[in-house]
Amino acid sequence: MDKSVPVTIILIENTAIDGKHLEAGTILKDVNPELAVDLAGSGKAALATEDRVKQVKDRIKAEKAAAAERAEAAAARGNETTNALLGALASLITQSAAAQVKTPAAAS
After folding, report:
1. Are residues 53 and 10 in contact, defined by beta-carbon separation less than 8 angstroms?
2. Do 1 and 33 form a contact (C-beta atoms < 8 A)?
């Protein structure tokens, strides 16, 4: 690689450059070759070829879909728990109300 010609890279992992957070999948143009080599060497970036860009974008899309599925499953579990607790609470309220209704009648 010519060390003087800027290159175009794609970030493979979330990365901070010069204090700025950049997400995986970000394409950076006209990057200093030394920085590009450092990022590539640490596994955070690669040259932005068509194939590599597609691979990274597909991976990110799959990761987001999996995260959404996990979030939906967690929400469903939370809803089931909430519904069970509400049902138990309603049952306790009904039992308490029934006990209060019986108490005055028993005292008469």
Report:
1. yes
2. yes
End-to-end CA distance of the chain: 98
d(CA 10, CA 12): 6
The answer to whether 33 touches 40, Cβ cutoff 8 Å, is no
- The answer to whether residues 26 and 46 touch, using CB atoms and an 8 Å cutoff, is no
User: In whole angstroms, what is the distance from residue 76 CA to residue 59 CA?
Assistant: 26
Which pTM was predicted? 0.59
CA distances (Å), 86 to each of 13, 79, 97, in order? 43, 10, 16
Q: What pLDDT, in 10s, does the model give residues 73-96?
A: 888 777 788 888 888 888 888 877
Confidence at residue 81, expressed as pLDDT on a 0 to 100 scale = 82
